[in-house]
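Lecture notes, unit on protein representations.

Consider one protein chain, 323 amino acids long.
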Amino acid sequence: MVEVESLRKALHRAGIADVRVDGTSRAAYSSDASLYRVVPSAVVFPAGHDEVAAALDVCRREGVPVTARGAGTSVAGNAVGAGVVLDFSRYMNRVCSIDPEARTAVVQPGVVQAVLQRAAAPFGLRFGPDPSTHTRCTIGGMIGNNACGSRTLGYGRTSDNVLAMRVLTAQGEDLRLDSAAPTMSRTLDDLATVVTSGLATVRTEFGRFGRQVSGYSLEHLLPENGFDVSRLLVGSEGTLAVCTEATVRLVTDPAHRVLVVLGFPDIAAAGDATPEILQHRPTACEGIDSRIVDVLRDRRGSAAVPPLPAGAAWLFVEVVGDT
């Protein structure tokens, strides 16, 4: 690994203004929401696409690994690494534009999900996926781990809501991934060859269930799926390319939401009832059992738990509509 001070100087020479190698900054970025701790060599706050490209160029020459980081809400050590950590949330955090007619938004990776929601709200629109960390998680981070949230049933995963991306590869390629105007690239040609040589495996082993999120979703590259490289990159945790801009789909915010709470004798019974409930096309369906509720009552008192239907397990079902 290159010496820390030499790395800082190399990054500065490349034109990157905000580089931190002090102990406090490196310690702050050594952990995320997981139990892991890996101290990085440097923390870089890129101000734009060109600075990201410059950082990747330095790291490629010096043999330094790169970790793209959003808000650090990952629970499996996804946002920590021993090399350079790229934090997009300080400067690359803009909602660049919203097209209410096309129902799309162009965003930088560091924009917080809740900020995008506020920008889209005046048009009666919203970004569909909404993780519990929506007040702090970034769209770039959601792209990294293909975030879902409780309303996946209604709006799908992040991969279902990304239409185009601008990315930088480890080799330094600047790719604009848009199914309407695909970029010509040697890397993409090689990728197509990989998929073509393994069509049977990709068709039978990938995309087999709805909440298949992190990893390399090669099913999106099948000919019948339009060789959608943007959707492949969603969930790859920045290991295939670094996103510097994304065009995302927006959905209409419903006029009315109703939450229905259903009680069951146990969690197994709640699970058995779920397929029938899904026929009514809810936007969300979440289950908990009495063990969670009992802990809350014990620690916070009965007043902390709203009245629930009789039973030892519950399904919380959200339905929406225009009336």
